[in-house]
Amino acid sequence: MALQDEFHFIDQIKPKRVSQSGLVAGIGDDAALFRPTSHMEQIICMDTMVEGVHFNSHTMNPYQIGYKALAVNISDIAAMGGIPTYYLVSIAIPKDWNEADLLSIYEGMAMLADKYAMDLIGGDTVSIAETLVITVTVLGEVETGKHFLRSQAKPGDVIFVTGTVGDSAAGLNVLLHNGIEHTLSEFDEALIRKHQYPLPRVEFGRLLSTFERVSLNDISDGLASEANEIAKASGVILQIDEDKIPFSEAILTKYRDRALEFALYGGEDFELVGTMALSDWDILQKKASERGYILSKIGTVSDGGPAVFLNRNGELQKLEMKGYNHFTK
Amino acid sequence: MALQDEFHFIDQIKPKRVSQSGLVAGIGDDAALFRPTSHMEQIICMDTMVEGVHFNSHTMNPYQIGYKALAVNISDIAAMGGIPTYYLVSIAIPKDWNEADLLSIYEGMAMLADKYAMDLIGGDTVSIAETLVITVTVLGEVETGKHFLRSQAKPGDVIFVTGTVGDSAAGLNVLLHNGIEHTLSEFDEALIRKHQYPLPRVEFGRLLSTFERVSLNDISDGLASEANEIAKASGVILQIDEDKIPFSEAILTKYRDRALEFALYGGEDFELVGTMALSDWDILQKKASERGYILSKIGTVSDGGPAVFLNRNGELQKLEMKGYNHFTK
Fold first, then answer.
1. Which of A166, B108, B195, B202 could bond A262 through an S-S bridge, CB–CB 3.0 to 4.6 Å?
2. Is the CB of residue B104 less than 8 Å away from at least one CB of chain A?
3. Which residues participate in ATP binding (chains A, B) (predicted)?
4. How confident is the model at residue B57 (pLDDT cuts 50, 70, 90)?
């Protein structure tokens, strides 16, 4: 059964309560209205996920598609040091999707939104011939002047990364080879979980916002690509030590030979990579450890470039701006 | 030639200058940042257009697709009484679209954005198998408490509409029957222009914002549907006089028999329909006429309902919440 009535569908996805005190009018009029918190800058981003490109029925169920569509946007807010507040969802629906699965997409989003007290305040619902397309816009806020850009790296900085990297691409690899129904090992499941339920690093971004100067990026296209973006925006060289890159036990067990490739070029980990003054590093490390965050120093910033080098046992290898490019892969 | 390089494409669509003084960071980082104007509420909306559903190569060229994708969103800002400020664009691109046509979409948007000093500050560029999908998010602002909702109609109000209605649907009808290449009469062209280049009524919305209480809606789904939304949100009856509905010379010449159908159920006119106190009506009419705006009183609001009636020479006919519904048509 395809979706019969747009208005009935919207009634069902309309939130039953409001979390943000600044919300004036959510779903139900021509546009949404909110009063921004004073002394805060507004942050906004927008990402699209396409059936057959970003997901398919073998890699993610509808709930996970919803979760991830929101998570990737929240991750962008985290990479600015901000707090997510509102989201809007536009969905283009083909005839072969049923209402239960569509509602499940919104439930996956609502689960994550609740964690951050975010409100769904608008969007669009349209039909399409072939493939489901979901576009999410997320708003956030950060104390005026306290945001983090990629352009703030300076020579002498420490390069750090949160969590472990490469797991999402490894998880996708498991899914593409085994399918969603296959019996999986504990390690397989850990990797798949990172692909299906990436956790945006909002709390860590907020911890960083207590520091004066941080350059920051979230890992959507792989460590090589994100590091190059920082190098380019800041006009510096980033040197990453291969033996410092944090890998999970799961990826080292399942994919020891491909772990580096997945970390550098796989993407979708939605961890944070950044740089900060060496003098701040010890304080950050202490605070992160108190809070139980996994945090690794993976290299240093130096004068020159822009370029990114991987230090492999003393041998420097240039890392190109390669990652997921939608139109060459 | 399909799109080869996402980064190269983004470089080309990136605006060369900034119009809004509140913009802190636009395209080029994880998210965009802006400082909202003080004492203003923020407005946000999001609309999607799908190839084969909202347009095809016989009804609109790429420049017009871009123009309209932005216009429909600005129209929602206008319907809140607001000023548009920023926009974000997410586009899913199939292989059979070439880069020149894609850039043309962004040029069509930029043309309209310039009119309102809006800045393009973000979005996404992804691939898709079959059909082009374009989603636009528009931000705007309105003086705190001065926004217009659909729920503000009261018994005794005048119902008004801007411009003429039904032209867009009539124009689409011409296009679907003749194709974009056909030799067209002056009237055909006028109707087609309303379909391809709807003009959001931002200035009129701002004029309305000098009045205390206005209920307002933009005509995206047809007069019947929009009037029902006001009736429902306000808990009143809207009675529209058939002989007061403003039609263009073009529609009356080409489609006299279908003009009413197009006006009530066609949609995409992006005119404004609203209600206000009778005591304010004369002042509005005077101000509108001074500025050269076409404005018509088309009926009155009364107690009861919610319902919408069409007065056809004294005979009342109930108008249902019918309009463009993506999943029943």
1. A166
2. no
3. 106, 123-124, 150, 220
4. confident
Minimal C-alpha gap between B299 and chain A (Å):
22
Closest to A249 in 3D by CA, of A320, A190, A290, A316: A190
DSSP secondary structure letter of residue B153:
-
- Portion 123-162 of A in contact with B at CB < 8 A: 123-131, 133, 135, 137, 139-140, 142, 144, 147, 149-151
Nearest CA-CA distance, residue A246 and chain B, Å: 23
Cβ distance of B126 and A325 shorter than 8 Å: no
Alpha-carbon gap, residue A3 to B327, rounded angstroms: 6
Q: Looking at domain A6-143, which CATH architecture does it have?
A: 2-Layer Sandwich (3.30)
Based on the number of CB atoms within 10 Å of its own CB, is A229 exposed (0-12), middle (13-18) or buried (19 or more)? buried
Instruction: Please report the ipTM that was assigned to this predicted complex.
Output: 0.93
Residue B328 scores a pLDDT above 50: no
Q: Which helix (H) or strand (E) holds A195?
A: helix A186-196
**What average pLDDT is seen over chain B?**
93
CA A176/CA A144 separation, integer angstroms: 44
Helices (H) and strands (E) in chain B, counts: 10, 13
CATH fold for the domain made of B150-318: Phosphoribosyl-aminoimidazole Synthetase; Chain A, domain 2 (3.90.650)
Residues of A marked as binding for substrate?
A: 54, 268, 324
Break chain B into its structural domains and give their ranges.
6-143, 150-318
Contact assessment for residue B288 and residue B185, using Cβ atoms and an 8 Å cutoff: no
Residues of chain A predicted below pLDDT 50 = 1, 328-329
Helix (H, G, I), strand (E, B) or coil at B222: coil
Partners of residue A47 in chain B, C-beta under 8 Å:
90, 124
Binding residue positions of A: 30, 47, 54, 76, 106, 123-124, 150, 218, 220-221, 268, 324
Between positions 268 and 307 of B, the ones with CB within 8 A of A are none
Per the listing, tokens 């032209």 go with B167
Q: Are A231 and A306 in contact (CB under 8 A)?
A: yes
On the 0-12 / 13-18 / 19+ scale of CB atoms within 10 A, B176 is exposed
Max CA pair span of chain A:
63
